[in-house]
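Workshop exercise sheet. Pairs work together: one partner reads the sequence aloud, the other fills in the structure field after running the prediction. Swap roles for the next sheet.
Pair: D.N. / O.F.
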Amino acid sequence: MYYMNNQVNIVNKEKLEKDGCLPDHIKKYYKNINIVNDSFYFKGNNGKGILLIHGWTSTPYEMRAFGEYLNKVGFSVYAPLLSGHGTRPEDLENISWKDWKKDVFRAYDKLFDECEQVFVGGMSFGGTLSLLLARKKNVAGIILMSTPYKMRYEKMFRHLAKVVLYFRAYKNKSYFRILGSNEMCLTQVVAYQKYPIISLYEVHYAIKMSLQKLNEIISPTMIIQSRNDHVISRGSMKDLGKSLGSRFVKKRKIKNAYHNFIGDTRNEYIFDEIIEFMRECDK
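Structure field:
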């Protein structure tokens, strides 16, 4: 097993060890807090691999249930920990978008050495990195999950961020409630709950770069987005689909799901749909 990072797990153990604070749909897979901030690799037997890229401020753990599911049907699965993640928010301060791009390219090369085909799937900002990878590398198929073409209230937020940066360097996260539910999502447990505003500028620049020359990306693509997504624009799925050069673009919207829906095991049905898409890529 190989890891790109081997950083110390500094997750809030007291919060996680209190079973009462975690809903059942999270506890189902949240069994070992010592691996929350680790990369993971599962060796498969069908000659195909998939690179799973987690979202900004999160960890590979949000992709782990999906990764285990893929491995059971034969895929080799590698989910690297991106630079500046899995430790403390302060470690994002000196990280450039190019560092995250290098992380993903190195991970792809390692997986490609072992597999005949390599797919890539990214959650949120992980989808942005997937696009950057797919423009340069031989990718059998792309799964874009909650991937931004535009962010909600993007212009307003950019102006506000410049003002806020003068007064404070960090911003706390807030989470949208689905249909009035008080349940937390997995990202609320495993990700940083505050972030350096300066790092957000790196994210926005990476998104801008990922949208250049989308017509050069010809790999089959599946785009999945929650109808309740409070982070990216409602039109992101449509705009991405129109801009890609692929002749095979499959779109799927999910009801009553968070932005980071892949970590919510109530959405396991989407795992099967993604696997079916990957099989269709060979036809």
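Discussion prompt: The first helix runs from residue 13 to 17. What would you look at next?
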